[in-house]
Amino acid sequence: MTAVDISERIERFVRTQFRVAPTDTRFSRTQPLFESGYVDSIGVVELLAFISEEFGVSVPDDVLMSEEFATIDGIAIVAYRLYQNGNAKDGASPP
Amino acid sequence: MSALRLVGALDPNFGWAGGGRLIDGMCDHAFSAAPDRMVGAYTCIGSSGGGARLTRDPLGLNKLFWAPGDGQAVLFAARPWRLVEAGCRFEDIWSVPAGVDIELDSECGTRRVRWLRPGGWLERRAPSEGSPQSIAERIRAALDGYCAALAEAHPDARIFVCLSGGLDSSGVAALARRHFPEATSVSFDLERGNQFPSADRRAAERLAADLGLPLLRVTVTDEALLAGLDTALSEGIDWRDFNVHAALVNVALARGIAAACDPKELDRVLVLTGDLANEYLSDYHAEQYGGVTYYALPRLPTWALQRVLIRGLETSHREVGPFRAHGLALVQVYAAAVDEYLTLPAPFLADPARKDRLSRMVFGDLIPDYVYARPKTRAQTGDPDAGRGVLGLCVDHGIDHNRLRQRFLELHRVSDPGALDRFIRAGRYRSSLPSFQDTHDGRRHL
Asked: Looking at the predicted complex, does its ipTM rise above 0.95?
């Protein structure tokens, strides 16, 4: 599984779960999801649950708040890294 | 090593490891062993014998924030507003992660980080351990054991029990009657003029009488309730509407209890609540008012929603904060049984009657049948007889989601609204461990 694969699956989830219109030209994998209102505070929880179930990884709190965890591509890179590393932590959250 | 400075007091501790006594003085001994298990609210920060220690309970029920201070100092506080008052920027404030136990050795300049729970303990599906009946028996044993430990640690406490007339608070009231014979129950209601009191008030009156508990009635006008908004926001450390509405009720209750006490006895008051049980059983629902949906929840299976809600207890201080602001210590009794609730099987959690079924198994005849038969109501939403609750009151006064966010920003001197979304995301505070750098002169301070 590559980061691109993950990005595709996240995009599909976001489009379906949050009812992104097929004609919405603003939406893309590089669009900040939370700032632009595609995913609200409830939606973030649903997105995290999807990532956990789909890829078997849980997102540490420090990563959740990072600038990387903002776009579909950024989230995919995070998920890919966690997937590759088996969710190894740096001590900032439980091992 | 950085200088650690505590701004203001921490919240009272009610940590428990099972057994007959509460956890006490963990941070008095920098290098002592951590308990095998900790439930209940607990934070400490202290130094002794060449070391320092910093601990926060695994559910994050007690709050602890930090921010860099002048030089190499690290400031800690139980509320972000205290750090802002001390000169820190809101954007520089972090929560200490829940469940962390840090030891700092000033001689070696090292730190050791331990976690009181394994990572992901709330995300994974815990294996179900036994039947719901056997789990209920363990829940009851945990609650009784915790109450006994509280009574042992606080033999002179003046006990109040918040009583909404619902199952959760009724269970706590029934236990309080057994462990604290002089307890007083407390009921909240809005002033409704000549109209009926709320269903909650009527249920609380009946139950208090049946349990033999005196009842303190805290009845407030709309204006008096809304006057607690700044306290609800700053002490509740949250702007999200459900939590603010709950905090407003708690501010009113705290005021009422404090007013009923001699000021000299406030520091021995313990307030018991039935909080947390709704999270444990995912017993929350969206509500409608004026054609608008409030209190929306993530669309997840009940067992997954349970985990999210319990995880979210780390965020928001809607109970402890408002009571502490009035000098009162609050104990969330159900904290003692979190592990037992987490073993409830997914099919049981999916049963719409789960609250009723489990409460009967846990409390049996301690709770009268009419409490089980009551439809669920909330102070936030009111009931058909009495009218609107706190939600409707706030909406009708224009205190909506945007107003709550704006007022929170003002109270914490923040100009960028985006700062809030970087402070709480997915129900979690922004959290990190301070780095405890060496000071510029090479000296190490504690």
From this structure: no
